[in-house]
Specification:
Helix content of chain A: 25-40%
Distance between the termini of chain B: 58 Å
Order of helices and strands of chain A: EHHEHEHEHEEEHHH
Strand order of the largest sheet of chain A: 4-3-2-1-5-6-7
Number of helices of chain A: 8
Shape of chain A: globular
Strand content of chain A: 15-25%
Oligomer: heterodimer
Structural class of chain A: alpha/beta
Strand order of the largest sheet of chain B: 5-4-3-6-7
Bound molecules: iron/sulfur cluster
Shape of chain B: globular
Helix content of chain B: 25-40%
Number of helices of chain B: 17
Largest sheet of chain A: 7 strands, mixed
Radius of gyration of chain A: 18 Å
Distance between the termini of chain A: 40 Å
Number of strands of chain B: 19
Chain lengths: 198, 471
Amino acid sequence: MSSTSRPLAYVHSRTAVLRNENIDTDRIIPARFLTTTERTGLGKHCFEDWRYAADGSDDPAFPLNQPQARGCSILVAGRNFGCGSSREHAPWALLDYGIRAVISSEIADIFRGNALKNGLVAIVISEAEHRWLLDNPGVELRIDIAEGTIRLPDGGVVRFDLDAFSRHCLLNGVDQLGFLLQQQADIAAYEQRTEEAA
Amino acid sequence: MTPRTLFDKLWDAHQVKAETESTPGVLYIDLHMVHEVTSPQAFDELRARGLKVRRPDRTLATLDHSTPTLPPDADGKRPYYTQEAEAQVARLEANVREFGIDLMGWDSPQRGIVHVAGPEVGATQPGMTIVCGDSHTATHGAFGALAFGIGTTEVGHVLATQCLLQRKPKSFAIHVDGALQPGVTAKDLILHIIGTIGIGGGTGHVLEYTGEAIRAMSMEERMTVCNMSIEAGARAGLIAPDDTTFAWLEGRERVPKGAAWERAVAHWRTLPTDEGATYDREVRIDASSIQPSVTYGTHPGMVVPIHAPVPAAADAVEQRALDYMKVTAGKPIAGEAVDVVFIGSCTNGRLSDLRAAAGILRGRRVAGGVRMLVVPGSEQVRRDAEREGLHEIFRAAGAEWREPGCSMCIAMNGDLAQPGQLVVATSNRNFEGRQGKGARTVLASPLVAAASAVAGRVTDPREYMNQEAAA
Ligand code: SF4
């Protein structure tokens, strides 16, 4: 499977909420599942140590197992989501689980970059707006990537920043490796310049 | 010219193309380290597009995460935890052959944890940009290199183009004044820093550690500090290169030799932050006030001096962390009963760490019922330790002396703790389940870990060190 994602303009869904702060990458996908050599198939292990009861059945206490959270593709999570390791298995697992967008007041750098490269929209909003979303699970949101807005059911609008390039890549399904490969002449010139100087 | 920070200089020197409003910059990468866990999908991408590795000579691979730390059996078969783990290692072996990359593999005397082995062979040098599909790549920043972790898609980018698309992060200086007290280590300092600025405190920033206490540190101690920059949310941590750096590097296999070495050192001396340069953020830490420190919760920012009471939970999430750890607010971590002690990892699996632990264990025994694993960070560390007889000290004390690898730091090779067990670990993450489902991790220095193994309880190492001084 190629890492190029399909163009994505909107995410439209009810929200599922995980209030916990600092949800780390080991929570999202425990290390024992990292021996895979594929990008797909990790969804069944997403939040593995959180979502299953001892007998392997779904633990009803886990918020994403609750009926109203089923099928939601927008996850609202506590501050500092995705901290920890650089494993891209974390966004792969979330995508395979059905999540297309994550919203928080703070998202760890490496996770955010990995997510956006895979078409998982990682959105940072203000603390006050974040708190409202945490306190109101299950609201219907429409994320508009071109506009950089989240539309609430009452017509309210929350704005978010997305750097222009990430936005462009999401909207057009741009292949970033393809973009870098077009810079080969400049890369070769850089190598010549610096390696001669050394 | 405007004064620049070390970070500014590293960044400027690696711009193939500067960033604009609409596109990130193209940043050149001098060294790309690769391991078995985060690379297979990237090599697949190259194959799918018919691409080659642009600079195999700037790429260096090792085996460390999925690898067993028990020796092969009589038939030479290694005791992999799962077939998938074995297949993942075989995949990297096949990929490096196909793409012509050097591998410090099973047959290499240099194999080790990527952030231990890279510096040891001299691949890590001041002034470089270094990346790896691993968040503890910041370790290499101890040499004055801009080093950070990347995801697998970016591993593919670097393999194919030797470049990354990047926007410049902000800079954050951490000045550490004064001197650390005896029994207080680089690990205690970095735990204290993370506790001070918080686990999201460095998000969006590159840290530069400066000041008297940092200048006084050995390279191994500096690596311990930079290693955990990611635990404060920062992608990279830097320490300016100096004579300590050059002395450590000189003569290593991959560093320049002769006149080229002299030229390199002259260049490296220009890297430290200029007088008058400014950072986006700064904090000051007083090294002399730091005590041996331990974590009490489920992230590395939940840290206290070993004798200080565990703080009351601020909210339900923190309370859940205390419940998971089975610790009580108001009581110190010192005295908690210990089941497992793990000495190793890219944070504290180097020779000086093993020496520190052995210093406490010499002539003593690991307490009954406590399992202790000592896992050198690399083959080189193993050889050096065995030459000094450290393995004999560990074995005589009742500890297991293992083969090099990540081992119980990430617990994906079968080295793991059982549910509910308390592990005092010299590694870097105490997330729920990191060392095995339900395992409770207390992060600590090698001195604290060794003292806790002997006492069977979380213990201040100075209790043993003072006895020695008195004897
Ligand atoms: S020792 Fe731990 S932190 Fe270091 S590279 Fe291995 S798994 Fe990662």
